[in-house]
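seq as requested:
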Amino acid sequence: MKKIISCVDGSALAPSVCQAGAWLSERLSLPLVLLHSIEKEHTGQVNLAGSIGLGANESLLQELADHDAKKSKLLKAHSKALLEELQQSLPELNSPVATLERFGDVNHTLSDIKESIRCYVMGRSGESHGNETHFVGSHIESALRLVDRSMLLTVGEFKKPQSFLLAYDGREQANLAIERLLETKLLADCDCHLVMVGNTSHATKDAFDKELSRLESEFASITPHFVDGGNIADSLLAKQQQLNVDLTVMGAFSHSKVRQFFVGSNTLKLIANSHTSLLVIK
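struct tokens:
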């Protein structure tokens, strides 16, 4: 069975990552797993390769190895305590919330277990940012590139969506995002704002009108919006505020401005300044 994975650490956003994961779990009727990855740079491992040949004292080398093992044990105990605390903070769900501890980079862990993932959740900022939740964690952009699964990104306290902005450009990945929403009915009881930025060709407008007609009966309400020209990130940020939506949804890696957006500097601009959680559908 596929699972929802909430990637947590000791950051201020960890509770919202868990809450967002719980919401996905309930909406999609899938089990939730809280994942804590202990990054390699935090384990303090000492590389002793070649040291013996340099005349190093064997007892000192053994002491260093024992210290490394003890530190790893303490980090694992801390991870377990963190996961248990977050697990207990969640309301009772349809299925028990599982926990998973892994040493190593979180994105590598997600890639290793991707066959079991339906969607994963991350917070915009990491543990090192303290309460400064507008900073973008270094793992976010690499996750979008490397992990071939949909991502829900929280940027503050998570609010169950009542309305959402759906970015549309007429391309394959935008259509895929719509198909996924219709298939899962994840946002079926929400107000949808279908937003097209910049692309004003007749073919794209025809595609937009076709999707608009198809979606009219699928959500609580649907409202079309055309935004002519301008920077895609700035335009979407402005629409977020104007419409006061709870969530922004888009497909990733299409051959258009959205592709440029997700592999360029605009990625960080939207993520760093977003007023809503972001759902990137793959």
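Residues 163-281 form a domain with the Rossmann fold fold (CATH 3.40.50.620).
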